[in-house]
Automatic annotation (TrEMBL):
<feature type="transmembrane region" description="Helical">
    <location>
        <begin position="91"/>
        <end position="110"/>
    </location>
</feature>
<dbReference type="GO" id="GO:0012505">
    <property type="term" value="C:endomembrane system"/>
</dbReference>
<protein>
    <submittedName>
        <fullName>Cytochrome b5-like heme/steroid binding domain-containing protein</fullName>
    </submittedName>
</protein>
<dbReference type="GO" id="GO:0016020">
    <property type="term" value="C:membrane"/>
</dbReference>
<dbReference type="InterPro" id="IPR001199">
    <property type="entry name" value="Cyt_B5-like_heme/steroid-bd"/>
</dbReference>
<feature type="domain" description="Cytochrome b5 heme-binding">
    <location>
        <begin position="142"/>
        <end position="237"/>
    </location>
</feature>
<dbReference type="InterPro" id="IPR050577">
    <property type="entry name" value="MAPR/NEUFC/NENF-like"/>
</dbReference>
<feature type="region of interest" description="Disordered">
    <location>
        <begin position="243"/>
        <end position="274"/>
    </location>
</feature>
<feature type="compositionally biased region" description="Basic and acidic residues">
    <location>
        <begin position="259"/>
        <end position="274"/>
    </location>
</feature>
<dbReference type="InterPro" id="IPR036400">
    <property type="entry name" value="Cyt_B5-like_heme/steroid_sf"/>
</dbReference>
<feature type="region of interest" description="Disordered">
    <location>
        <begin position="1"/>
        <end position="35"/>
    </location>
</feature>
<comment type="similarity">
    <text>Belongs to the cytochrome b5 family. MAPR subfamily.</text>
</comment>
<keyword id="KW-0812">Transmembrane</keyword>
<keyword id="KW-0472">Membrane</keyword>
<feature type="compositionally biased region" description="Basic and acidic residues">
    <location>
        <begin position="12"/>
        <end position="26"/>
    </location>
</feature>
<dbReference type="Pfam" id="PF00173">
    <property type="entry name" value="Cyt-b5"/>
</dbReference>
<keyword id="KW-1133">Transmembrane helix</keyword>
Length: 274
């Protein structure tokens, strides 16, 4: 390029640009000036033609409006005046909603094409239909005996309960007969969710849990409440607990540690102080 020669140092000076094209038209912006009709200039020339056509349409509409207003002033019956064809159309609420729907639709299609999921494999509760279903509608109250019948056998759905809340987990393969979590089907095994004693703690009795075990129960409650495939369908009614009955024993109780000498000394000191 000529300007690169100038930057490289003294040498042959570049010749000034001269338009040698023969086909020229009037410059739409500068009076008494002709410009080339080459491809690079055609968008600007076409825009000038568009502005001229819009101006002509607006002038014609003004004449129609003038005639319309005059007829109305004379008391004549006239048809409604057509809107100005050159007026800028503002985007209304309906147009905005259409735009949002189109964007969401295209976003979902892109997710299906790229990840195989319309929601881009997201499990967010805001993308789950059950989030927008009013709670309480269609909720059932189960007895312990009635809940036990929903164990997946004979084609029945699979329900489980945790701390009184009943969920339909029929979509989970692990809860099917023979699955690794089938022991949860038809029962409220809230205690087992915290202790891990699946064979002996299939009960809703949460007495005596440690803080960590109780936190584990709360974690699993949130897990089922927010799961995309499991739906809460009701609650199970338990008989009152007998608080005089023994607390269920842990399947793997911690071994008691022998107190250290310092602990024994402190214990004696405390005992004397009491």
């Amino acid at each position: 390029m000529s300007w690169m020669k100038d930057l490289s140092g003294p040498g042959e000076k570049s010749k000034p640009y001269k338009d040698e094209s023969t086909e020229k038209v009037a410059d739409p912006n500068i009076p008494n000036r002709m410009v080339s009709n080459k491809k690079a200039n055609r968008p600007f020339l076409a825009y000038k033609e568009y502005r001229d056509s819009q101006e002509a349409l607006h002038v014609a509409w003004l004449k129609k409006k003038e005639a319309h207003d005059a007829a109305v002033a004379r008391g004549e019956k006239v048809k409604p005046l057509e809107p100005d064809p050159t007026a800028v159309q503002e985007v209304g609420l309906l147009g905005l909603l259409k735009f949002i729907v189109i964007v969401v639709f295209m976003f979902a299609l892109a997710g299906k094409f790229l990840t195989g999921s319309y929601t881009w494999e997201s499990n967010s509760k805001w993308l789950q239909a059950k989030t927008y279903i009013p709670k309480g509608g269609g909720q059932r109250l189960f007895s312990q005996e009635g809940l036990a019948t929903f164990n997946g056998e004979d084609g029945r759905p699979i329900y489980l309960a945790i701390d009184g809340d009943v969920y339909d987990v029929s979509k989970g393969k692990a809860y099917q007969p023979g699955g690794s979590y089938h022991h949860f089907a038809g029962v409220d095994a809230a205690r087992a969710f915290g202790t891990g004693c699946f064979a002996t703690h299939k009960t809703h009795d949460l007495r005596g849990l440690t803080d960590a075990e109780y936190a584990g129960v709360q974690h699993w409650k949130q897990f089922y409440a927010n799961h995309k495939d499991y739906v809460k369908i009701g609650k199970v009614l338990h008989p009152p607990l007998d608080y005089d009955s023994p607390i269920p024993q842990h399947c793997n109780p911690p071994k008691p540690k022998s107190p250290s000498k310092d602990a024994q000394k402190d214990s004696k000191t405390d005992h004397k102080e009491l």
